[in-house]
Amino acid sequence: MTAMNASTLRIRDTALRVARAGQGQPLLFLHGPGGLAESQAWLPALAEHYDCHAPEHPGYGGAAVPAWLDNVRDLANFYLDYLDQQKLRGVHLVGYDLGGWIAAELAVRNSHALASLTLISAQGIHVPDVPATDVFLRTDDDLVRDTYHDPALAARVLERAPTEEELDVAVRNKEVTARLTWQPRGHDPDLAKWLHRIAVPTLVVWGANDRILPAEYGRAWRDRIARATLAEMGDCGHAPHLERPAETLAALTRFTASTGSPA
Predict the structure, then answer these.
(1) How far is CA 33 from CA 27, 54, 109, 117, 247, in A?
(2) Cα 83 vs. chain centroid, distance in angstroms?
(3) Do 238 and 121 touch, CB atoms closer than 8 A?
(4) Residue 222 CB: number of other CB atoms within 10 A?
(5) pLDDT (tens digit, 0 to 9) for every residue of the chain, 263 residues total?
(6) What is d(CA 169, CA 175) in angstroms, rounded to the nearest whole number?
(7) How far apart are CA 238 and CA 214, in angstroms?
(8) Contact 124, 202 (CB under 8 A)
(9) In contact, 177 and 171? CB cutoff 8 Å
(10) Parallel, antiparallel, or unpaired: how do β-strands 14-21 and 5-11 relate?
């Protein structure tokens, strides 16, 4: 399995930690509210197929919160700066949960550097009459159990006791997530009306048994983005790339190959 290499770049006036490895078409992975560590186990598999860039969002992982960071749109604009500064083109953009929301906001603004967009259990839109879990009202243990469909997998995650440093980082990640997504909860009321601007093929990946954002959310993303397809995974909760990593990777590589950009 390909090992990830960590480095720190400066994007304008902001330090950005990036894990990177692999060769081929560039892929930018944007993590969820738990930070990059939450999705770290899946990154080497991405690097087997792509030139994988996995930044830790500014303000996450214990980093200071930049003065300019007020909302998800700020992160979308920041990652457009990242693509420009790194001179990346033909990028497969992949985002999970909060990262999917950032990715959709980025693609609405400017898809010129993108070859495709993949949204995994993305926040960002509201679906009327479909109750979603208010993650700010759940305990840490509850959220782990909510994330996974397989209770045995959730139990294995909960067995590992975090270090004091990891607990401190988790608290700071929650603080910056609240700053970005508190009100309105987990969505931008203006985003849905601009999704028609996404100009690249889009794959929506969703767990059929997602208890945080039910499967109706995945279908809503598919229906609102032109050229979007949905991969709905059975016996799977909110984190398909962690609960069904091989199937999620297979869906992604098939999709990117179908766009004419080989994995």
Answers:
(1) 20, 14, 22, 19, 23
(2) 16
(3) yes
(4) 18
(5) 778 999 999 998 999 999 999 999 999 999 999 999 999 999 999 999 999 999 999 999 999 999 999 999 999 999 999 999 999 999 999 999 999 999 999 999 999 999 999 999 999 999 999 999 999 999 999 999 999 999 999 999 999 999 999 999 999 999 999 999 999 999 999 999 999 999 999 999 999 999 999 999 999 999 999 999 999 999 999 999 999 999 999 999 999 999 976 55
(6) 10
(7) 8
(8) no
(9) no
(10) antiparallel
Residue with tokens 């995650």: 157
Distance CA 127, CA 113 (A): 29
46-49 own/partner pairs: CB under 8 Å, 24+ apart: 46/22, 46/94, 46/249, 47/2, 47/4, 47/21, 47/22, 48/1, 48/2, 48/22, 49/22, 49/24, 49/249, 49/253, 49/263
Before 201, cis peptide (omega within 30)?
A: no
Residue type, 155: A
Based on its alpha-carbon atoms, the radius of gyration of the chain, rounded to whole angstroms, reads: 17
**pLDDT value of position 262:** 53
Torsion of CA 42, 46, 51, 55, to 10 degrees: -30
26-30 and 14-21 strand pairing:
unpaired
Strand residue runs (E) in 121-160: none
pTM of the shown model: 0.97
